[in-house]
């Protein structure tokens, strides 16, 4: 499947809708506070699966200009939202609360250079900004892999495979200092290659797979997730409260975690196929905007009084989580659709540099 195709895969869009909904739920303070098991389960698959989606496509037919346009669509929103949130964070936390500005200013260049979770949270107040640079690195590695000479591709896979095997030996803290989350991206590259190898045969049979097979797949996913959480296995993501990754010193755990990544990824794809005629398709198509907008929506809600809400009963807590989750998702989706209908779409979410050129011509 070529990423430049104009046809839409409704199942994939629905899968993106599932994943972005999981990310919005994962950023919900009340959910993380009241359901430690739920938040841990989300972090076993939602962001990792997003980073593995590019492996469903081939990039050997993508020209250099198309590749640059793809990065343009990812990095322009990243820069735009960084420029918007940095002064906002400064206004909220330093203008009316003096102290700490010097350390903040000193950390700013390092955070913008590294683009990883901890540093970005220090300067913007938001830890999610690491994701889009990581996606850009993933696509860049894949484009190089598909377009380089065979020897160069083999060398790339060999280097990343060595890293995949050895990552468990690296101090977890060091992962924060790999620019653009390359440590995480490189680790996921090997499972991603297996996803590519399995994808053609598996997805070609999507329409003929029986419901019983799906039930077994979903059952295997939930069982493996239980093993991961019960035995404190791994989560290959920044900010991981569990062991980061397994290495060669734990070969069976290494194999298990890779199998779990593959099973959870294809389970989400399959779930998206079943939900391909639901509102999740629309949500998935706006996943980039929702990803960037929803933390701001939550921050506004929090500063407007949400931080004073409490739920002291077993009934009240699920209700509070449900209302705030759907409220954040609906408002974020509404703002995403609103942006689509305004010039901000071409400014902040351009499809290519040509969109900016058209805006300039209109002004003239």
What tags apply to this protein structure?
364 residues, disordered N terminus, 17 helices, 70% helix, single chain, mainly alpha
Task: Give the low-pLDDT segments.
Answer: 1-6, 236-243
Structural class: mainly alpha
Q: What is the approximate shape?
A: globular
Mean pLDDT: 84
User: What's the β-strand tally?
Assistant: 0
Strand content: under 5%
Distance between the first and last residues' Cα? 40 Å
CA radius of gyration is 21 Å
Q: Biggest sheet: strands, sense, closure?
A: none
Q: Return the string of H and E elements.
A: HHHHHHHHHHHHHHHHH
Number of DSSP helices? 17
Helix proportion: over 70%
Please tell me about this protein's structure:
The longest helix has 32 residues, at 64-95. α1 (10-26) runs antiparallel to α4 (46-52). The chain is an all-alpha fold. Helix content is 70%, strand content 0%. The protein is built from 17 helices and no strands. The model is unreliable at 1-6 and 236-243 (pLDDT under 50). It has helices at 10-26, 29-34, 36-42, 46-52, 64-95, 101-114, 117-124, 131-147, 150-166, 182-204, 211-230, 251-274, 280-285, 287-303, 316-340, 344-348, 353-363. 34% of the residues are buried.
Explain briefly what this protein structure is:
With 364 residues, this protein is mainly alpha-helical. 70% of the residues lie in helices and 0% in strands.
């Amino acid at each position: 499947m070529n990423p430049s195709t104009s046809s839409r895969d409704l199942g994939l869009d629905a899968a993106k809708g599932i994943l972005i909904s999981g990310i919005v739920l994962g950023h919900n303070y009340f959910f993380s506070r009241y359901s430690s098991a739920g938040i841990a389960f989300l972090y076993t698959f939602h962001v990792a699966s997003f980073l593995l989606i590019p492996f469903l496509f081939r990039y050997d037919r993508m020209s250099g200009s198309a590749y640059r346009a793809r990065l343009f669509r990812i990095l322009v929103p990243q820069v735009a939202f960084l420029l918007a949130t940095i002064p906002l964070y400064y206004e909220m936390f330093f203008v009316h609360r003096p102290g700490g500005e010097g350390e903040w200013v000193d950390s700013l260049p390092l955070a913008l250079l590294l683009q990883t979770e901890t540093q970005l949270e220090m300067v913007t107040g938001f830890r999610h900004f690491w994701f889009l640079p990581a996606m850009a690195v993933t696509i860049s590695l894949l484009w190089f892999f598909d377009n380089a000479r065979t020897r160069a591709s083999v060398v790339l896979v060999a280097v990343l495979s060595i890293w995949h095997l050895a990552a468990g030996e690296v101090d977890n803290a060091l992962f924060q200092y790999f620019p653009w989350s390359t440590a995480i991206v490189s680790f996921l590259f090997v499972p991603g290659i297996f996803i590519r190898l399995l994808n053609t045969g598996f997805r070609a049979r999507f329409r003929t797979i029986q419901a019983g097979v799906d039930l077994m797949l979903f059952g295997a996913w939930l069982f493996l997730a239980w093993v991961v959480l019960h035995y404190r296995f791994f989560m290959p993501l920044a900010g991981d409260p569990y062991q980061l990754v397994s290495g060669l010193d734990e070969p069976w755990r290494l194999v298990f975690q890779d199998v779990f990544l593959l099973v959870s990824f294809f389970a989400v794809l399959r779930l998206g196929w079943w939900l391909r005629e639901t509102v999740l398709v629309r949500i998935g198509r706006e996943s980039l905007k929702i990803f960037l907008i929803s933390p701001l929506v939550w921050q506004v809600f929090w500063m407007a009084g949400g931080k004073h809400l409490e739920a002291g009963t077993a009934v009240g807590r699920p209700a509070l989580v449900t209302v705030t989750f759907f409220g954040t998702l609906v408002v974020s989706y509404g703002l995403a659709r609103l942006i689509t209908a305004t010039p901000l779409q071409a400014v902040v979410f351009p499809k290519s540099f040509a969109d900016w050129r058209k805006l300039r011509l209109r002004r003239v």
